[in-house]
Specification:
- The complex is a heterodimer of chains A (330) and B (321).
- With 330 residues, chain A is mainly α.
- Chain A is built from 14 helices and six strands.
- A two-stranded antiparallel sheet of chain A has the order 1-2. Chain A has a two-stranded antiparallel sheet with strand order 3-6.
- A six-stranded parallel beta sheet of chain B has the order 2-1-3-4-5-11, with helices on both faces. In chain B, strands 7-6-8-9-10-12 form a six-stranded mixed beta sheet, sandwiched between helices.
- Chain B is elongated.
- Classes of the chains: A mainly alpha (330), B alpha/beta (321).
- The interface between A and B is medium-sized, with 36 and 34 residues.
Amino acid sequence: MTALLPRRGLAQILALIVILAVDRVVSPQFFDLRLQDGRLFGSLIDVLNRGTPVALLSLGMVLVIATRGIDLSVGAIMAISGAIAASLADSHSMAVVLAAALGAGLVCGLWNGFLVSVLGMQPIVATLILMVAGRGIAQLITEGRIVTFSSPDLVWLGNGSILGVPVPVAIALGMLVLTGAVVRGSALGLLIEATGGNARASELAGVGTRAMILAVYVWCGICAALAGVIAAADIMGADANNAGLWLELDAILAVVIGGTSLFGGRFSLVLAVLGALIIQTMNTGILLSGYPPEFNLLVKAVVVLAVLLLQSPKLSGVANVATRLRRTKA
Amino acid sequence: MTLKALFAASAATALLLALPANAAELTIGFSQIGSESGWRAAETSVSKQEAAKRKFNLKIADAQQKQENQIKAIRSFIAQNVDAIFLAPVVSTGWDSVLKEAKEAKIPVVLLDRDIDPSGKELYLTAVTSDSVHEGEVAGEWLAKTVGAKACNVVELQGTVGASVAANRKKGFDTAIAKHANLKVVRSQTGDFTRAKGKEVMESFIKAEGGGKNICAVYAHNDDMMVGAIQAMKEAGLKPGKDILTVSIDAVPDIFKAMVAGEANATVELTPNMAGPAFDVVAAFKEKGTVPPKWIQTESRLLTAADNPQKEYDGKKGLGY
């Protein structure tokens, strides 16, 4: 019963193990791995690979949420950066393509951050603007069609491998390490948590809360842009209508599953990424199970509910009382 | 995009107005839904081409996915006293009053691509639409014929759950293969009509079916999902089009690219030319008073690698898909 104590990370790891076990039951070859054209191949790799966009989004989202904000525009930013990358891929060098796509994410993040920190708008409303307008911008860039490309450099970003590991997975891992090093290697993480915990008190204590808020939205925009480039590279085309559609909700869910409160304050990057993996492990399991698609969302809802219940302090309190009662009886 | 289309449309209109008046020349107002998909854009460009071919004057109003804009457009067409109105209805209900106004003005209305609420049958001349159940049947029949007597496990990429097109294309395919005991759909999942989901779902199908060895064919409810599935097969070291047969629906340019590369086998066309038959019906109605049947079904052409995919690709790539 100690497993139910709210020790950080235990509930998430437990949930991941349980879902992996269920996946193994519905699909006996789940843990099989082999090399295919120099790239690891198997359902586990699919989980990591398909989980990459949401994992990248959650890296930015968790910081935004830690400041008591929220960013609904990440899916739209994915569509914009993917559209830009796909439009430029065949005519420009990889450096230009990446700079333009990530630069667009940076500008989008600046816009969100400006609305929230300088103009003091409610984050949910401020980012809703770009959520709606951003997809329109992406559609303008692609002229409403799916823009395809064949640039091998960009395709490699989606389908290549480094020592057998798919490039998107390596990128997500690199971003996790980089973000972790920056926010936890310095006092930055603490300042972000302080901003989310109590902005006014932090401001009075000398924390540059406005700069913090601006910075987290910019980082969120860049992460989303990177996710968008990878999503476009994966299908060798930019689909402005569907790229990143509803992924902002998955990213928020990943952060919440990772134990970060929507009311800001303490956050964990690793657990947010773990949250993204939990979601994808479940999605891949559903696809492998062979159930009719009508059940997809229902299964997802039940699993998410179970994972969140596992983390609920009230519930683990009840469990603790029950254990204590049983002990006193014995 | 919209602006560009508007400019192009007004330029085309100006050009047509400048032409010497033809005895058979008709002015037709077309209330188009908007630019919701590549197919819709192609339908608009083909409508313009077909009008130019017949020297008809076509006025296109883009409704931006809003019914009130379509109703406004129809009222404005009535005020301009056009010869006929084409309507691609964004929803199936709520058309009664505006269609009655058109009927009172004696302007025939032809529905394109989508039908409306059956209560309004007498309010329009005819509907030119594709039969999505039939599209599924054509796909299933092609597969049955190609496979012959060999046992064949089919995996299916469905469209969005709840979309009527997806349900119909599934029904048609199931009906066609029900007559062949050797064909069996072993897995069926939704790919939401998108490339990314088509790829993800196909990846899981391949893993679940012995690395793809147990799969003989893929049926996708649209070409975009198939394009994604083809990538998934290639990444798994399989040869789409050879190891695993492919059949999908829509006939968008990129599926012909895959056919040229030998990676796709067949597609069933959802023709973007709904306006062509509608023009002919209106011309016959205006000149001879011929009343057409209430439903004109467009042809669901089967196109395979043997049907010169390069030519199809060249013909379609400029249409705005």
